[in-house]
Amino acid sequence: MRKWMKGLLTVSALTLSMSFTSLAGQWHEDMVGAWYEMDDGTYLSHGWKWVDGDRDGTAECYYFDNRGYVVKTLDTVDGYEINKEGAWTVNGVVQTKDVALPNDPEALALYKAAEEKNKELNSVDADVDAKLTMSSEGESMEMGMKMALKMRDMKSDDPEYVASGSVELLGETVDFSMFYTDGYLYMDMFGMKIKQPTPAMEAVSEVTELQSLSSVEAQMMNLQMHEDKGYQVLTFEMKAGELNKLLDEVMGISAGDYEELGYKVRVGVKKAKGSVVINENGYYVRETIVMDMNVSVTDEDTGESETMDISMDMVMNINNAGKEAVFKLPSKEGYVDVTEY
User: Fold this and answer.
1) Count of CB atoms situated within 10 Å of the CB of 101
2) Phi/psi class of residue 86: alpha, beta or left (left: φ > 0; alpha: ψ in -120 to 50)?
3) Of 17, 27, 91, nearest to 53 (Cα)?
4) 297: closest CA among 281, 313, 309?
5) Cα 146 from Cα 210, distance rounded (Å)
6) Cβ-Cβ contacts under 8 Å for 8 (sequence gap 6 or more)
7) Which letter does DSSP use for residue 95 in this model?
8) What are the per-10-residue average pLDDT scores of the chain (341 residues)?
9) Staple 147 to which of 60, 128, 203, 280, CB 3.0 to 4.6 Å?
10) How far apart are CA 160 and CA 200, in angstroms?
11) Which residues is 95 bridged to in the sheet?
């Protein structure tokens, strides 16, 4: 290609990157075509728009018609090449733009210091309040969970914990309690008391897996900080694309459990944000996470698939942050071993 043509393309690309708007929302598709809904409920239309559809911090450029649909049926729009998905390309290569909001350096330094300090804790006393809204085929259902959790010897091969709380679903409230010791998980729920051998790390993950969502620096963007009543508050968004890579790994590890039942499960995060509150000693006293995701379940025999949208809002308050959690284990009497069932 002649130098002047390369130069023209470069200038054109730069002009586009300066003038096109980069926007966040989610894709939809109907019988007419694909369209993009913004977080405020409006939709894109009339021209070129940079779209970070999977919220991984990288956007692609699409042309939306006056009805709001992506143009896919042409080879070029306004003289620019597009692929079959409607994305702007140059010589067959999809053009991208970095739209990830940067992390504040001071906030990132504080976060790293707090992570290192909290990793050294060997026990925790926390209260968790989680709300989930599940929607599928025009119907929705809400579920709430409240749980008080105390753990100790977390860094050893023989951790122990006690947890109790309630689950609200379909207007009903179900109380539960559970504890872990000596390699066994004990559960009291629905009037049944059962126990089963559970590896130590698996037992810990049963009650702490939600915490890990806010503990991955690589998935964070737009990390900011402010002070509130003597506490340092960090707020952040999460790169959905990167988070989904982790979820794919987790689901890959546990895929066998579903395959035995004849189902294939796919979990995808659409958007997520959260916050952590740090006290004067550098310990977390509060963590929050808000996440929108979808779960698709496919019957491998029939090929039929169902997708459910899930919104999760979780708050975890840490009591006596930095201090040892003190508790007494309940009695083991009356629990039935379900290992053989």
Assistant:
1) 12
2) left
3) 27
4) 309
5) 13
6) none
7) P
8) 36 37 69 87 90 79 94 89 92 83 88 89 94 89 94 88 93 93 92 86 48 56 91 90 70 54 77 92 94 84 85 94 94 89 60
9) 128
10) 9
11) none
